[in-house]
Structure formats: structure tokens, C-alpha cells
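sry for the spam today, last one i promise. C-alpha cells for design, 203 residues
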């Protein structure tokens, strides 16, 4: 009889413990958006570049184009591997009306900090790769640009995204310092400001 009572009490305690855990799990709130796993994403942006020519002066001009950026999360702490392809062009540069097409292909690391429940998501990144310059500004205006086909490029900056839902965000603004090293017979580097904005799809 005592064994039966003990067994019955043990069984009731076990059932109560399991029921309590199940109720707690069902009553727990869903993970907030900022705790969701990072997702791979593709950003398609309009790109604006502010540059200058010839070297050692500031006959500044604007380039317009687009960029595609792919980010793949590598750590849930907020890091991602990033690849960026940007193509911009300009015409009517200087008094001679020269043209330039500048393409950059860079890759590197992005840091995306967690900032709570806000739909706004900042990020910072450092990328490096190659730049390809073509057009009459290279062929006629800068004969020294012997490495215009493949010059070193670096892209450093950050931006701010607005999360709409799990699959879609808007890139409100991204601002980068874009360094290119096309030979120009003076200092062999160009300091460019790149500003972009667009849409982001997550997978």
C-alpha cells in the first residue's frame, strides 16, 4: 500500500512538472525581431559618386549608376561576409567633355550591431578589391593610367536600413569612402565619396 501511494505521488509530481514546463513554453513571448537569426541578403541600390579630375586639383564631377551587394552571415554576433559590385559613369567632364565609366568589385566584412526592437538597423563595413576605369577620360585625359584595367580599390563606410518585414528592407542611405588607385602620374590614387540607397531582399 505504501509503495502504491509513493508511486502514485511520484507520477502526479512528474505530470505536474511536465505540464508546468509546457505552459511556460506556450506562454513565453516570441523572440523579438532583433534576436532572429541573420539572413543572407541582396541589396540593389542607386549609386552616386563624387570624384575629381585631373589630379592635384578639384575639377569635381559626379558619376551615377547602380550597385548590387550580397551579404552572407558568418556569425550570429552580427558579422557578415560582403561582396559589392558598383558601376557608375559620367560624361561631359572638364572643358573637353570627356567621359568615364568606373566599376569596382570589392569584398570584405560587415558588422551589424543589435539595437533592440527598433526597425532601424545601422551597419559598418570594410571592403577591398579591384577597380576598372574606361572611357575618354582614361584614354585621352590620363595617358598614364596603364593599370586602369585592374587597379586596387577599397570601400569603407556604413549605412542605415529600415526593416519592413522579415524579407524586405529599405536602405535609407549608405555613405562610403571609395579609394581607387588608377595611375595618374601624380599620386596614383583617387579619393571618392559614394552615396547609395535602394531595396534589400532577404533569403
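last one done:
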Amino acid at each position: 500500500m505504501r509503495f502504491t501511494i509513493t508511486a502514485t505521488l511520484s507520477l502526479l509530481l512528474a505530470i505536474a512538472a511536465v505540464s508546468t514546463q509546457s505552459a511556460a513554453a506556450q506562454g513565453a513571448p516570441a523572440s523579438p525581431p532583433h534576436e532572429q537569426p541573420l539572413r543572407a541578403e541582396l541589396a540593389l541600390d542607386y549609386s552616386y559618386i563624387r570624384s575629381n579630375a585631373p589630379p592635384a586639383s578639384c575639377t569635381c564631377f559626379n558619376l551615377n549608376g547602380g550597385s548590387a551587394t550580397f551579404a552572407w552571415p558568418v556569425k550570429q554576433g552580427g558579422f557578415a561576409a560582403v561582396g559589392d559590385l558598383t558601376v557608375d559613369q559620367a560624361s561631359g567632364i572638364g572643358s573637353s567633355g570627356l567621359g568615364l565609366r568606373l566599376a569596382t568589385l570589392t569584398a570584405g566584412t560587415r558588422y551589424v550591431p543589435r539595437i533592440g526592437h527598433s526597425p532601424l538597423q545601422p551597419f559598418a563595413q570594410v571592403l577591398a578589391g579591384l577597380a576598372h576605369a574606361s572611357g575618354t577620360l582614361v584614354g585621352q585625359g590620363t595617358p598614364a593610367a596603364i593599370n586602369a584595367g585592374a587597379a586596387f580599390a577599397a570601400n569603407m563606410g556604413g549605412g542605415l536600413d529600415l526593416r519592413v518585414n522579415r524579407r524586405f528592407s529599405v536602405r535609407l542611405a549608405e555613405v562610403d569612402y571609395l579609394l581607387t588607385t588608377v595611375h595618374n602620374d601624380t599620386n596614383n590614387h583617387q579619393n571618392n565619396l559614394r552615396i547609395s540607397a535602394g531595396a534589400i531582399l532577404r533569403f
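Strands lie at 41-52, 60-75, 79-93, 98-111, 120-134, 151-163, 168-180, 190-202. ok im logging off now
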